[in-house]
Amino acid sequence: MAKPATRSRQSARVVPLRKGATLEMVRLTCPDATQAMAIAESFGTAVVDGDGIRDLHERLIVETADSLSEGLGERAMQIHLQRIVGAYVGSAHGAGQFYSRAVTEARDATAKAANDARDEDLDGPVGYDSAAQRKREFAADMGIQAYSLRMAAEGAVAAYEQIVGEVWKPFDRPVENPGASLDRKAAEAQMAALG
Questions:
Q1: Which pTM was predicted?
Q2: Is residue 3 over pLDDT 60?
Q3: Cβ-defined contacts of 160-168 (< 8 Å, 24+)
Q4: Nearest 5°: phi and psi at 57?
Q5: 17-18/173-174 β-pairing
Q6: If you average pLDDT over every residue of the chain, what do you get?
Q7: 3-state DSSP of 78-89
């Protein structure tokens, strides 16, 4: 009987990655130009020049790269820009998530206020807005901020592609010791301190 061939296989180790925010994630959570205009008109806030923000940030990143070009090699420039653009995209994504939560809270408060049997959600004293109105106005402010940061991120991503010649992708960093929870790490540190 023939002996089965033994394969020399290296065990594949799966390393979990901490995913970075992408421009697509930003676009899904932050208002676009049409929605930002609707918010500005409905709430009487300033109309933000999104295209101007985008163009300014694109120029800013390009000019920054030009000024650094003599001191940084091609790979160092790419790494530096990766981090800079990642910060813009991460900031916009965080603002978009905050905006989404603010909208949810405003919707909930508005729905509760529509129920005539709830005394705590009635309009405030004369001259003061209701809690639901304040939440709607807060959500509107967060929407305009998220839109502004989205446009800054889009400008930074466009600059990256212009400078590096590749489409920007977030850096996915490996998760440090994924099996150990924070409590377990703390317990280990405390036990080590005890000797």
A1: 0.73
A2: no
A3: 160/61, 160/81, 160/82, 160/85, 162/58, 162/62, 163/61, 163/62, 163/65, 163/77, 163/81, 164/77, 164/78, 164/81, 168/23, 168/82, 168/85, 168/89
A4: -70, -35
A5: antiparallel
A6: 82
A7: HHHHHHHHHHHH
